[in-house]
Structure formats: C-alpha cells, structure tokens
Amino acid sequence: MSVITLSLAGLLSAGAIAHADDEGDDADGRTLDAVQEAVEKGAIKPFSELRDIVSRRFRGDIVRVEPRRKHGIFLYKFKVLSPEGQLVEIEIDAASGTILEVENE
C-alpha cells in the first residue's frame, strides 16, 4: 500500500473525507455530515469495507476517493492507479457495496 493510500485511509477513517457531492443534492459539508450519520445508523457501509471491496477487485493504489450523493443515494468514486500506470475510476453504491460503473478499465 502506498504512502498516499495510507494517508488517505487515515483521513477517511478519521472522518475527514476529501471531497463530496457531484450533482449536488446538498453542499459539500452537509453531504459529509450525512455520510457520517448514515454510517452511524448502518444505512451505508463504512469506508473501510468499501475500500476493501475495491482493493480485492482492482490492483493498484487508491489515489483519490470522492463520496457523493446523487438523487439521495450515497456513492463513492474511487480512483485507482493501476500497476501499468492507468487511472481507473470505480463508482460504488455505499449502501450495498455494489460496483456500479468502471471507467478506463
């Protein structure tokens, strides 16, 4: 695991998520608060479980994570740098852990 991944994992597990919201159900801060509340209530999976799902399926280093809320559904977009140097974007449903979309695979 790279230093970037370790730093990112530490920030995310501490609740300081790097970025939020794509199409804006609400502002970034409120989305982050909503993510934390949803995890606490068990409505969505903790970041560590979602990270593990992505890591098992995709080789490489997670270099960015963006929690989002689209149409009331919590999603995470993971950006993974493959060993070959290709950036792969993975969108995952935060409630089910289902991978919804993969770009540049």
Automatic annotation (TrEMBL):
InterPro entries for the chain: PepSY
Q: Which UniProt keywords apply?
A: Signal
User: Which Gene3D superfamilies does the record associate with it?
Assistant: 3.10.450.40
Where is the signal peptide, in residue numbers? 1-20
**The keyword Hydrolase is assigned to this record:** no
Q: Where in the numbering of this chain does the PepSY domain appear?
A: 46-103
- Pfam families under this entry? PepSY
Q: Please verify whether the record's keywords include Transferase.
A: no
Know the name of this protein? PepSY domain-containing protein
Lineage, uppermost ranks: Bacteria, Pseudomonadati, Pseudomonadota, Alphaproteobacteria, Hyphomicrobiales
